[in-house]
Amino acid sequence: MDRLFGTDGIRGQANRYPITAEVALQVGKAIGHVFKATGHGTCRAVIGKDTRLSGYMLETALTSGLVSMGMDVLLVGPVPTPAVAHLARSMAADVGIMLTASHNPFDDNGIKIFGGDGFKISDGIENDISRHIASGELTSEHIRSDQLGKAYRIEDARGRYIEFAKSAIRGDDLEGLKVVLDCANGAAYFIAPLMFKELGAKVAKIHVEPDGYNINNQCGALHPEAVAEAVRRTGSDVGIAFDGDADRVIFCDAHGNVVDGDRILAMCALDFKRRNQLAKNTLVVTTMSNMGLHEAMREAGIDVVTTDVGDRMVIEQMRRTGATVGGEKSGHVILMDYATTGDGIIAALQVLRLMKQRGATLAELAACMQEYPHQLVSLKVRTKKPIDTVPGLLRMISDCNADLGRDGRLIVRYSGTESKIRILVEAKEQAKVDRWMAALTKTAEEELAS
User: What is 10-155's CATH topology?
Assistant: First the structure.
C-alpha cells in the first residue's frame, strides 16, 4: 500500500493525486470510520483552512465525506493551523483538520489532522485512514438519512483563538512597540494584525490581501527580506513574518537583520530558565539547528536534545521527555505550556513580552548566541534516490565530513514534503563553508537535479 501521509499530513499539487476532491471525500469518510461516528451528534470535526484557492474544493469534499458518515462538522474558515489544534480541543471535537500546504506555493495544498487533544494524530491512526481508503470498501450506507451529520459555520472561531493566544502573555501588553507584521497573504492575515493592535502595539501590516494565488509569494517567513525592508522604511522596533498557515515565524530586528528560529529558541529557553519555567531544564531542537545554539545552551547549563527534522519529531520528543520548549531553525517554535503545536503568533507574543520586560531590543536579546557560519541550499531533484546509491555525492560527503571534523558539520537530506534535496554546511570558517557548498551542489546537480 502506498503511504498516503507524508511527514506533515497529506500534501501535493492541488487537483492532482492525492490532493483531489475524490481523495478528500474518501479521507472524510475514513476519518468518520476511524473516529467511530455513528450518526448526528456522536462525533465532531473542526475544519479550518488557509487562503489557497483550492481550499474551497477540499473543504467541501471533506465535509461531504464526514457528514455522510454521521459526523458533524464545524467550519471555522481561514485561521492559522495552531488555531485549529486549539479549537479542536476547546470545542470538545474528536478531530481537527487544517487545509494547508504551509510554506509551499499556492498551487500546492494539504490536509493536516489533529486529535481531540490538539496534537497531530499518530502514525497508527494515519495508517488506519490510509488502509481504509486503499481497501476501496468504505461505505456510508449504514448511516440512515436521519443520522447524517450536519455542518455548522462557527462565526466566532477567530475571536476564540485570539483570546486564547493573548492569554499566553498573561495580561501583559505591547504598548510602546512599533511592529511590522508580514502575514504572507495567508491564514494570519486578519487575526494577527487585530490581535497585536488589541494588545497595544503600533502595527504596520504587509501582505494581508490574499486572493487565493499570492500566499507565500515573495513574502512571509520564507522571504524575510520583505519585512526587513518594511522595518527599515518605517523605523519599527521589530519585524515579524509568518508563513502561510502561521505555525512558524521569523523575525528581524530594528536594523533589518534576520533573527531565525534558533535565536528565538535560545532566548526563550534562557528566559524560561531564568523564571524557573524550563521543564526538565531541556531544549529540544532538530539536526538543522546551528552549533552555536548548542554552545550557548551548554554555557547556560541547559540540556539540548536533538531529533530528526520536522516539528512533529520535536513534539514527540518533548512529550516523551516532558520538555516544554522546542522547535526548529526554520521558525517552528513549540511552547508546550501554551500550545500543542508550533504557533507563530504565540511565539511572537513571547518575544515581544520579553523585549518589554527586559527593556531590550531584539538585537540585544538575539546576541545570546553566536552562529557558526553556515549555508543551506535546496535543489530540485528528479527522484529521491537513496543517497548511499549516488556514488559521486557519497564520496563528496565523506571527504567533507573528514575535513570538517569536530569543528563543523554536514547534513544532506531529502525534503519530506517536496522533491528537493537539502544541503547544510556549517563550519567555524566561512571560506570552508563556501568551498564545500560549491563542490557539493555541483555534484548533486550533476547526479540528481532536474
Answer: Alpha-D-Glucose-1,6-Bisphosphate; Chain A, domain 3 (3.40.120)
